[in-house]
Amino acid sequence: MKKQTQSIRIQTKRSQYREHSTPLFLTSSFCFEDAEQGKALFDETLEGNIYSRFSNPSVQEFVDKVCMLENCEEGLATATGMAAVFAGFAAHLKSGDHVVSSRALFGSAHQILTQILSKWGVTHTYLDATAPESEWEAAVQPNTRMIYLETPSNPGLELVDMAMVGRIAKKHNLIYYVDNCFATPIIHTPTDYGANLIVHSATKFMDGQGRVLGGVITGTKELIAPVRFFCRHTGPSMSPFNAWVLSKSLETLEIRMQRHCENAIKLAKALEKMEGVINVKYPHLPSHPQYELAKKQMKAGGAIVTFELEGGFERVTRFTQKLKIVSLSSNLGDSRTIITNPNTTTHSKLPKEDKVKLGITEGLIRLSVGLEDVSDLIADFKQAAKKSM
Ligand SMILES: *Cc1c(COP(=O)(O)O)cnc(C)c1O
């Protein structure tokens, strides 16, 4: 069956009530039919639900769908994306280990590597997303255990060549850990390039409607086992309610992503022609510096577009005041189009030299293109560009 069909048809086994839509198992624990069954479940001679910190049918349905979408054997859902990112690190790294990572990371992933794992003796080396194979190779040390990356990056929209990194991970037998939140499995599946641990903030496109927080990590059976142990005993579990919402959302992920991407490329092309708008960046625009790789690696360009407003923060302020439809928020991956000024919000705490390296200028705008009619979006941006000159 095709993935779109499975996204809809993977469902918790129908109960005696013959429900059509999937039920919500909002329960903290599960009953034992007898003392023997309780004993067997705890000594793991019998598989089944015990307590929702460990497992829950609504959560499992969501995980099963993500495993299917990402071509992974097993997975685990968590309360937020960051809980999943952290679980992947914490379950696999010990004092003395080293991580090779792309530099342009989601802010909190950067804080985990630099402020938390460093306290426990885990070191890391950052590389530019666009660094050549020789640099990735040279960054690997005898104690390197993992390669971690995001592609496309936030907010620079730089791509990492996942096949190239896959060769290095394989050669040195490293855990190849990818945050696939920006692209979603609809645009690329990192396991095609040898990645064996994939993480998502389900808060973004998976929910897609800005309602719930969630995270999910999937991978090989072997790599998920320690993550399961870590989560079972430290408790970052996803709420069954959020899992139920997210599982429903996955039914429409493919069609939503298609529309997000169609809108994004049309809007990116229109922005290139607007007054005072410069440096429009989108992976599937020929002007993107890695256009060839983007065409090869990404089925579509994604929902994120960046551009710069001439006139710095003052212009950003005037521009955002003039917008009538588009929201000003720090989130992304919503049916509503959102703009963010990374320099003063999501990336404000970065040192100046890092901002320069990542292309975060005062006038930079990150745009998460939603599902509105694109002609309304283009008109809104056009009038705001003109009136804010
Ligand atoms: C939002 C985001 C996260 C963190 O997810 P939360 O659900 O907010 O904890 C991690 N990685 C990327 C790329 C994100 O965009």
Automatic annotation (TrEMBL):
The modification N6-(pyridoxal phosphate)lysine is found at residue 204. It catalyses: O-succinyl-L-homoserine + hydrogen sulfide = L-homocysteine + succinate. It comes from Emticicia agri. Pfam families: Cys_Met_Meta_PP. InterPro entries: Cys/Met-Metab_PyrdxlP-dep_enz (IPR000277), O-succ-hSer_sulfhydrylase (IPR006234), PyrdxlP-dep_Trfase (IPR015424), PyrdxlP-dep_Trfase_major (IPR015421), PyrdxlP-dep_Trfase_small (IPR015422). Pathway: Amino-acid biosynthesis; L-methionine biosynthesis via de novo pathway; L-homocysteine from O-succinyl-L-homoserine: step 1/1. It comes from the Bacteria. This is O-succinylhomoserine sulfhydrylase. PANTHER family: CYSTATHIONINE GAMMA-LYASE, TRANS-SULFURATION ENZYME FAMILY MEMBER. One of its GO terms (molecular function) is transaminase activity. One of its GO terms (biological process) is homocysteine biosynthetic process. It is an enzyme of class 2 (transferase).
